[in-house]
Request: fold
Amino acid sequence: MSVLVLGGAGYIGSHTVYELVDRDEDVVIADNLQTGYMDAVHPNARFYEGDIRDENFLNALFNEEKIDSVIHFAANSLVGESMTDPLKYYDNNLYGTMVLLKSMVKNGINKIVFSSTAATYGEPENIPILESDLKEPTNTYGETKLAMEKMIKWVSMAHDLRFVSLRYFNACGAHKSAKIGEAHKPETHLIPLILQVPNGRRGHINIFGDDYDTPDGTCIRDYIHVTDLAQAHILAVEYLQKGGENNIFNLGNGVGFSVKEVVETARKVTGHPIPAVISPRRAGDPARLVASCEKAKQILGWKPSYTELDEIIDSAWNWHKNHPDGFIH
Ligand code: UFG
Reply:
């Protein structure tokens, strides 16, 4: 039996495939290559190019392969874009998941691990954030991810289907081989943008606001290494295989770092002065997002291995310095 990774050519999906292959799992990938890259596809996984909104494609795939579990990463994930083009997110994320669930039910595939996000919480009530805390997304991306979680839940109540939703905080870093890493187009995430400065691709990093209610005035985030996220997906598949009930877990380190701290650490790691310019706040940015990840630790037995910010940034730098333009040759 195989694990199907939808979106396995994307950032977190490709890292999860690498970890699955390392554990001798039989891995099948489906990706429409809209934001993923063929260069990120592991050579030992079977690759199908196609779109989850295409039910015929999914039915044919489930017919061809013996799939035990699905890990669902296939979605658009840019917060800013989700605000200017919300229907793209309803179409690819929500409608895509509807077609996927239809096909899974039809083909008797009954386990799904879903890629969710801290963006489902919106402006948090408490820090650290618990899975049970209020969820009021402040952008279309988070809204569609929350709706996808709920769709999976209701479908699981009506059909033979069990799920785990994993709400990631700030995914970052790269595979230890530096063969794959973060490469978004356009890039909007803090760490890759900072590393474009020592790479000579930009002159400075903008710090979006230094008047937040935090010790140094800049936003605080919980940075979690992509390989640790990948490991959590594998544990979630095993949890479902052992009969685990429907569940939702936060994935973070449980420690927050400010934008200024991230820039300072990147200066130390790269040895480059990385000029920073204080700029206006970015709309919709909460001041602090830090996970409580006790539940994942207790129930899944998950333990992040990259706990220090400098080792996380060092791992990202190891990829970016050799791939200044990502997967573009
Ligand atoms: N930031 C800057 N300058 C930049 C880019 C980012 O100061 O050039 C700041 C942002 O304002 C924010 C922090 O760096 O305070 C982190 O920003 P990212 O864009 O890297 O990440 P976000 O926290 O905005 O987003 C992440 C995930 C999203 C997810 C969200 C949950 O990337 O997918 O957390 O709120 F939706």
About this structure: Residues 52 and 96 are 5 Å apart (CA to CA). Residues 86-107 form the longest helix (22 residues). The radius of gyration is 19 Å. The chain has a mean pLDDT of 97.
